[in-house]
């Protein structure tokens, strides 16, 4: 049947009619959707395992038809259980997160439909990891229907072994749309929503901000790298980037990539771009830092202007607003290399005014601009597990798809320039305030005769338990403040977040108090230590 953009839907892979030609290009499977008479060619990237996503999808899709489809899946599984496990593997559940209340959107042409149908799950074939994958529907360019694919854990070619089932789930990577689209009648996307992104790494999630009447909704994907979040902020929904991942591997863009700034974050990012096969030219203010990457296959750029002029897309990741402006506007800076069509992606955490100014000067020269600050630390950067917050040129966001998949686990597109800067400052404000609170608690425990280790053990058994809490407490208990996130930078982010509150007359008393503690830590020469060294500001 004709498929528009729908929520994820369960389906199973079947043999196509003999007279039906397989679409050219990417690998697809012919899928029949449970509870309907719909069939479609679905790309392997758009399939997700049924069982891991079942409960989640049931919560999202309340309609009778969806329940009937789930009942049909369960009946099918009961019948085939004990018969042939392989066949059950071939059913992947299409459980993607999407709003079931969306109207049915435009119908896509045949090939587009096929592409769009299941952007969420990539079903991988091959070595024994094949799991059932639910494809979440997010059409690449006209959504398609989701499927349920039952392949048992397929291998991931991503370079990192899957850590658990979550890693195997297919990313909602393409955009939010993909994640939520399905084949069921009655679920449609508003006409304002634009097409979703192209194939993506099954472990990378793209979150889109679709600006419609609804407030932003994020759908969190469970896999390593793909989440699609749809936020509604404007007139169109942004789709994920356009890279292709086959059987879990990333197909690097053929565009030439430039990278400026090889600090704690930039170094890990460049390393992962190179590992995934991108062509990268690097530049750093202190050139010695480039040597390691030259050995790994990167090219050396002599100035920012030269890198921009010789590359298609240039990324930058520097310390603060002043450094970001100097890099663009200074001698032999980025702006001197900008010509019509050149692309610049600033990954620095700065304030919205700074990034807006940089966007204006880049665009005034015919360039394309995207802000893409990252949430994470050195370890997450090295592991390719950053969270990327992007805003600006949506087409450029899509062009960066393979790069974002190489460096991050999740990508959010937040609309117009300035939105990502604001969101990033808010995220780091929360993180910095929490870090100061942890340090305050640990020192109070110490001075009142309580065991700091026992406090950590208690916190780790409660609702505050997190990797961040555990790692930062371990740093403090071991006296190891080797920087994973510089203390001076979290203080800078708190300062900028407080200024953001000032600009809208919004109180930020918690951040203001935390900021004072970090300033004391800086006065105690802790700037170049990890943010956990804020602990030392509390020691009498």
From TrEMBL:
Annotated region (Disordered), positions in chain: 1-23, 79-176
Location of the PWWP domain: 1-53
Signal peptide extent: none
Domain of life: Eukaryota
Gene Ontology terms, MF aspect: DNA binding; NAD binding; NADP binding; nucleosome binding
Pfam families: NAD_binding_11, NAD_binding_2, PWWP
UniProt feature, compositional bias: Basic and acidic residues: 79-132, 149-169
Keywords on record: Chromosome
Family statement drawn from the similarity comment of this UniProt entry: Belongs to the HIBADH-related family. NP60 subfamily.
Protein's UniProt name: Cytokine-like nuclear factor N-PAC
Species, as recorded: Climacteris rufus
Top-level taxonomy: Eukaryota, Metazoa, Chordata, Craniata, Vertebrata
Gene from which the chain derives: Glyr1
């Amino acid at each position: 049947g004709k498929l528009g953009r729908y929520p994820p839907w369960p389906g199973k892979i079947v043999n196509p009619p003999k007279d039906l030609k397989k679409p050219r290009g990417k690998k697809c499977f012919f899928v029949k959707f449970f509870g309907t008479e719909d069939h479609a060619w679905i790309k392997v990237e758009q399939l997700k395992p049924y069982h891991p996503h079942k409960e989640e999808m049931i919560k999202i899709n309340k309609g009778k038809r969806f329940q009937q489809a789930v009942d049909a899946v369960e009946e099918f599984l009961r019948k085939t259980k004990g018969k042939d496990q392989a066949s059950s593997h071939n059913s992947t559940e299409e459980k993607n997160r999407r709003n079931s209340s969306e109207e049915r959107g435009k119908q896509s042409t045949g090939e587009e439909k096929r592409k769009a149908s299941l952007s969420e799950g990539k079903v991988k074939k091959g070595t024994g990891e094949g799991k059932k994958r639910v494809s979440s529907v997010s059409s690449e360019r006209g959504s398609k229907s989701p499927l349920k694919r039952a392949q048992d854990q397929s291998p991931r070619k991503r370079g990192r072994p899957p850590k658990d089932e979550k890693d195997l789930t297919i990313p909602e990577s393409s955009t939010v749309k993909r994640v939520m689209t399905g084949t069921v009648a009655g679920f449609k996307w508003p006409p304002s929503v634009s097409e979703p992104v192209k194939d993506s790494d099954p472990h990378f999630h793209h979150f889109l901000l679709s600006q419609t009447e609804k407030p932003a909704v994020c759908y969190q994907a469970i896999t390593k790298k793909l989440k699609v979040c749809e936020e509604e902020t404007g007139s169109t929904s942004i789709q994920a980037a356009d890279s292709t991942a086959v059987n879990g591997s990333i197909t690097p863009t053929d565009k030439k990539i430039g990278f400026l700034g090889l600090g704690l974050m930039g170094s890990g990012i460049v390393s992962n771009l190179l590992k995934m096969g991108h062509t990268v030219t690097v530049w750093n203010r202190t050139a010695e830092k480039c040597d390691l990457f030259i050995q790994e296959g990167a090219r050396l750029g002599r100035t920012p202007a030269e890198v921009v002029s010789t590359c298609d897309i240039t990324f930058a990741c520097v310390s603060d607003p002043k450094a970001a402006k100097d890099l663009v506007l200074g001698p032999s800076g980025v702006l001197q290399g900008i010509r019509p069509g050149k692309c610049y992606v600033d990954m620095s955490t700065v304030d919205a005014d700074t990034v807006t100014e940089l966007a204006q000067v880049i665009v005034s020269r015919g360039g394309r601009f995207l802000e893409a600050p990252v949430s994470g630390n050195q370890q997450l950067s090295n592991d390719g597990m950053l969270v990327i917050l992007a805003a600006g040129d949506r087409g450029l966001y899509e062009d960066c798809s393979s790069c974002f998949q190489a460096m991050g686990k999740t990508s959010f597109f937040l609309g117009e320039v300035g939105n990502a800067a604001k969101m990033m400052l808010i995220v780091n404000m929360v993180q910095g305030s929490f870090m100061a609170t942890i340090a305050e608690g640990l020192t109070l425990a110490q001075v009142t005769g309580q065991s700091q280790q026992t406090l950590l053990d208690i916190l780790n058994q409660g609702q505050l338990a997190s990797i961040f809490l555990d790692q930062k407490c371990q740093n403090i208990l071991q006296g190891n403040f080797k920087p994973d996130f510089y203390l001076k930078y979290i203080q800078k982010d708190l300062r900028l977040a407080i200024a953001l509150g000032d600009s809208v007359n919004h109180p930020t008393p918690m951040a203001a108090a935390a900021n004072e503690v970090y300033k004391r830590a800086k006065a105690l020469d802790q700037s170049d230590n990890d943010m956990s060294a804020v602990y030392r500001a509390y020691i009498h």
